[in-house]
Amino acid sequence: MKHLLAALFTAVLAVFAAQPVMAQESGLHVTPTVLMHSDMAALRGFIPSGWRSEGGLTWGDPCNAYGYNVNWTARSPDGRYGLGFFPSLGWGRGEFSNCRQTPFTSLEDLLTYEAQAIWPDARMIDFRRRPDIVGGQAVPAEFPGLGISAPGISMQSWLDAGEAMFAFTGSDGQDMRGAILGSALFSRSVLDPAASGLMIDPSLFPGLPMPAPPPAQTFLGGSSEWSFVVWAPAGHLDLAASEAIRKSFLPTGEWSDFILQHRAVIDGQNIQGAAERAEIRRRTNAEIAGIIMDGYNERMAIQDRMHRETMEAVRGVETYLDTSGRPVQLDYNYRNAWQLQDGSYFLTNDDNFNPNSVFNMDGRQLQAAP
After folding, report:
1. 140-161 burial, b if ≥16 CB within 10 A, otherwise e?
2. Count of CB atoms within 10 A of residue 109's CB?
3. pLDDT of amino acid 275
4. What number of CA atoms fall less than 13 Å from residue 225's CA on the CB side?
């Protein structure tokens, strides 16, 4: 599994060739960070050392079925490099909804909308699908159980996941590149009375012209998961480093327990149709903005070595023991992991790395957990 993922990762870099920016001395220097939900630690992960983190999880979003969302970024000191999570979106929720978002017909449309919300002049220059973030299933994946095909009416529902590269102009006029990774559930319904086969008896309206059937109507609906965004000057976007950052984010056990209970209450209050949509969302919810597995399940199974190694292979990480003896998961594409004296981490493929010569501080090379 790890060899297969490594091959996939190599293919990623071949598609989006770029020079490293977050890396230093053939490695990645990262510091732990926490995304808060009110006064609760919700997500833990890493950002490049020296970057500033802003935002977190928000509450009271009418366009999210469960009321919470995310609005978070981390930026370099000069602001030219950054990454973050783009909030989930909902569209096609009805005439009187507070979140009447412009409908999207495809994942490419969705990612383009998100890019231009961040970078107004963004233009897509490449796109590829990412089945790995939805459990490895081929995408787009249609849900036959949610489809309808009858005279005059049809409905399709499908899941899609992918990554797009954009070009845009920075605030200082510099040529920039940004990548957005995301997934969404789409639906398209068509109502065509003329194709229904129903006929009106002319004898019911003697002497009156027969009314023409109303035109066909198309209804689009759907919802997206959190998207992961990264940007840098052209030629300096390091997707290997950003992928390692994205995969580092996991929910805390406390927040997972809270959200599971919250969702159970909301689902219990919804009508059957909403409950079915919630079940679909639960089954198809996968790694997006950095979450690929349930933190609660991971916390309960952390002592199970076989489970841990399986999850490591899926997520592309290796579990190390830090200087205090606690487990920490770091990207496995770097052979060596160090914890520096200031508590930050440095990932490198340089077997001769010396923390004193690079950072002028002591450090300890970490060992993989048994």
Report:
1. ebeeeeeeeeeeeebbbbbbbb
2. 14
3. 46
4. 25
Instruction: Extract the tokens encoding 318.
Output: 């290796």
The C-alpha atoms of residue 210 and residue 169 are separated, in whole angstroms, by 57
Task: Tell me the per-residue pLDDT of 153-173, one tens digit each, with 9 for 90 and over.
Answer: 888 899 999 999 999 999 889
What sign does the CA torsion over 283, 285, 287, 293 have? negative
∠ CA(18), CA(23), CA(28), 5° rounding? 135
Q: Which residues contact residue 261 at a Cβ distance below 8 angstroms, ignoring those fewer than 6 apart?
A: none
pLDDT, tens digit (0-9, with 9 covering 90-100), for 122-132:
999 999 999 98
In this structure, which long-range contacts are made by residues 155-159, counting pairs with CB atoms below 8 Å and at least 24 apart in sequence? Answer: 155/187, 155/188, 155/189, 155/190, 156/187, 156/188, 156/189, 157/185, 157/186, 157/187, 158/185, 158/186, 158/187, 159/134, 159/183, 159/184, 159/185, 159/186, 159/284
Segments of the chain scoring below 50 in pLDDT: 1-24, 94-96, 271-272, 274-275, 277, 284-308, 310
pTM more than 0.85: no
